[in-house]
């Protein structure tokens, strides 16, 4: 059983859910009614956080599970937890100003790249090992 990667998956989805709720709150606060997606720059930053996190989830979730399967569920979950922290730091920074998103982006990106690279190594190494 892969309890740790499963827990990280649920937490990542809960973070995304909260970011989605934040868009609804921002709509009310800045009086941006659907389907309008622009207007107040503060609202637009909240939307960008939610949209960018959705875009990143498409890469993150398969990378988390591939790494957990081919390398280690414990290490995969640890790197996944770092990704979540990075996304939270990204959101807090971006909500304040676009320039303040960089640290969170760097944390999440390094975690994601490690998950992707590790997955690739974990998949390819057993395939080429008999050839060596």
Give your account of this protein's structure.
- The structure is a single chain.
- This protein has 132 residues and is mainly alpha-helical.
- The chain has four helices and no strands.
- It has helices spanning 3-30, 41-70, 73-96, 102-128.
- The longest helix has 30 residues, at 41-70.
- The two termini are 32 Å apart.
pLDDT averaged residue by residue:
97
Oligomerization: single chain
Backbone shape: elongated
Spans where pLDDT lies below 50 across 5 or more residues: none
Q: What helical percentage do the residues reach? A: over 70%
Q: What is the end-to-end distance?
A: 32 Å
- Category by helix and strand content: mainly alpha
**Strand count:** 0
Strand % is under 5%
List the helices and strands and how they pair.
Layout: H1 3-30, H2 41-70, H3 73-96, H4 102-128
Keywords:
132 residues
Quick overview of this protein structure:
This protein is mostly helical and 132 residues long.
């Amino acid at each position: 059983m892969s309890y740790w990667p499963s827990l990280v998956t649920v937490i990542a989805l809960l973070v995304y859910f909260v970011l989605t709720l934040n868009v609804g709150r921002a709509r009310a606060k800045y009086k941006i009614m659907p389907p309008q997606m622009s207007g107040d720059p503060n609202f637009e930053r909240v939307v960008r956080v939610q949209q960018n996190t959705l875009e990143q989830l498409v890469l993150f979730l398969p990378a988390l599970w591939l790494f957990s399967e081919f390398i280690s569920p414990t290490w995969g979950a640890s790197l996944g937890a770092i990704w979540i922290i990075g996304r939270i730091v990204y959101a807090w920074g971006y909500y304040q100003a676009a320039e303040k998103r960089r640290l969170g982006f760097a944390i999440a990106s390094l975690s994601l790249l490690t998950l992707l690279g590790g997955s690739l190594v974990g998949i390819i190494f057993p395939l080429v090992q008999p050839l060596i």
